[in-house]
Write a structure and sequence with these properties.
about 160 residues; two-stranded antiparallel sheet
Length: about 160
């Protein structure tokens, strides 16, 4: 079996540090017995350079005309959060969380004994956290990140 990331990077001639994939392992984030409901394969792909992403999908239209603005926004926020954590010496793991029945969270951050779940939205939607996540991780916090409040999460 060929690793998709290695295959893609080889074809495109991209340095490994340019592409980052969150939680390809689908691993357990806190050792609870509820982790079995999480998907064990897959993941989401995030690019440090979204120009490479745009080249792969051949879409360079202005942001105001794009149908994938939500994906680009999610990618941007996660990159900024990774930089914030790195620059502030915060040891935090980032995960994508989804169940077999397709309940999902865009990002789960674990560190300093805390679990922080996030939905990252371009607009002002305020979805609730999946019930199974709340039940499985009752001490986790949950927040919706959007273009109006994201900067407060990076300070």
């Amino acid at each position: 079996a060929v690793n998709l990331m290695s295959f893609m990077l080889g074809i495109l001639g991209i340095e490994c540090s340019t592409v980052h994939c969150l939680d390809r392992r689908g691993g357990v984030i806190d050792g609870t017995n509820h982790a079995m409901i999480r998907i064990k394969t897959g993941g989401k792909w995030y690019f440090c350079d979204t120009g490479i992403r745009n080249a792969i999908i051949n879409d360079f239209t202005p942001l105001s005309l794009r149908i994938d603005v939500g994906h680009l926004w999610e990618n941007y926020f996660i990159n900024e959060l990774r930089k914030y954590n790195f620059n502030n010496l915060k040891q935090r793991d980032l995960y994508f969380w989804r169940t077999y029945d397709k309940q999902e969270l865009d990002l789960v951050e674990e560190g300093d004994g805390e679990i922080r779940a996030m939905e990252i939205k371009w607009g002002n939607k305020s979805p609730k956290a999946p019930k199974v996540f709340i039940k499985s991780y009752p001490n986790a916090s949950y927040e919706v990140i959007n273009k109006d409040n994201y900067y407060t999460k990076l300070s």
